[in-house]
Amino acid sequence: QSGKDAIDGALEDPPGEDVLFNPLLHDTDEGKSELLDVAAPKGAEVIDDGEFGATAWYLMLASRMEPKVALRATDGLSGDGYVVYRDEKRVCVRASATGEAESDVEELRAALADWSGRSPEGTASVEVADGTVEFRSCDPGADAPAVGEVAVDLLALPVTRTQLYNQVLASGGTDAQGRCFGQTLIDRFSFEQFTDEAFLSGPEGQGLIGEVQRSCL
User: Fold this and answer.
1) What is the 3-state secondary structure (H, E, C) of the chain?
2) CA distances from 195 to 71, 96, 158, 198 (A)
């Protein structure tokens, strides 16, 4: 299918959150995420629950750490779920997540431990139980200082990766070449370089892009 028929087909059965965040997962096993059931503590008032999603994980993590680290931690997700609840006048969230491999679980745990370590004392925690990351965070109160900032600019990293992949396919390259080109450029450049048009169009940036092209294409 192509054109209007392809769009109609996609809307009839829209992809999941992981695929919307990373379209390279479309029609792959990694793109089929599992919704985990997460329970609130006994007696707590449930406010909301459902799928947390790759976009939310990435933006949350990237607000307090190097975006490339946040992206690597998010890329390994295979399923998640969350519940928001009120317990003794405090609003908290519990979230669970699984990974494609044991190393993916550890990568997400380490990123969340870093994130939690920047929170006010006693308000956030993370652990791994039976291969599942268990995360909890509670509202620190109105007087707590802000830590990190969720900004739309952070999405430049995953969005540009997809654009690079599409550019390779549009020029006749293969799926594997597109994945190699997009991911390797992210690995080679810092986030600041990756989002700096002057650097990318300058001699150093163009030289690195040329090296990646030769290795992937």
Assistant:
1) CCHHHHHHHHHHCCCCHHHHHCHHHCCCHHHCCEECCCCCCCCCEEEEEECCCHHHHHHHHHCCCCHHHHHHHHHCEEEEEEEEEEECCEEEEEEEEEECCHHHHHHHHHHHHHHHHCCCCCCEEEEEECCEEEEEEECCCCCCCCCCCCCHHHHHHHHHHHHHHHHHHHCCCCHHHHHHHHHHHHHHCCHHHHCCHHHHHCHHHHHHHHHHHHHHC
2) 15, 31, 11, 9
According to the model, what pLDDT value does residue 109 have? 98
Per DSSP bridges, beta strands 132-138 and 124-129 are: antiparallel
- pLDDT value of residue 16: 63
Distance between CA atoms of residues 82 and 178, nearest Å: 33
Per-residue pLDDT tens for 19-49? 667 766 766 666 667 899 999 999 999 999 9
Residues of the chain with pLDDT under 50: none
- Supply the pTM of this predicted model: 0.86
Q: Are 157 and 136 in contact (CB under 8 A)?
A: no
pLDDT of res. 22: 74
Q: Which two tokens stand for residue 168?
A: 């390779």
